[in-house]
Structure to design on (116 residues):
């Protein structure tokens, strides 16, 4: 049996930009993605703390160390600049893998810098 578990979470990211004229997705600073173990074009779930919106999309890497978190295409309708969001990435694990399982949680400050 496989269980779907939280693999990675980027907690309290702040939306820095919005681009309705894009194909769609969420752009996130590549440094943050690498720290969370999330790959380019991987499926993610996003929850907006300001308006309660919750949506699935895929992630694309933004400029390293830029702090960018940009809502693109239709996702631009799910929030506004300054909103705080949580980004979730899930994976399926076997019972054996779950014995050593621990999700990676990245916490950001108000400037989208990783808290140490």
């Amino acid at each position: 049996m496989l269980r779907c578990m939280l693999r990675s979470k980027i907690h309290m990211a702040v939306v820095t930009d919005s681009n309705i004229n894009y194909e769609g997705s969420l752009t996130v600073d590549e440094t943050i993605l690498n720290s969370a173990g999330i790959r380019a074009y991987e499926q993610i779930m996003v929850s907006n703390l300001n308006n309660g919106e919750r949506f699935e999309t895929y992630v694309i890497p933004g400029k390293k160390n830029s702090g960018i978190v940009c809502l693109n295409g239709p996702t631009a309708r799910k929030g506004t600049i300054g909103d705080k969001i949580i980004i979730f990435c899930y994976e399926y694990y076997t019972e054996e893998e779950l014995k050593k399982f621990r999700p990676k949680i990245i916490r950001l400050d108000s400037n989208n810098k990783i808290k140490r």
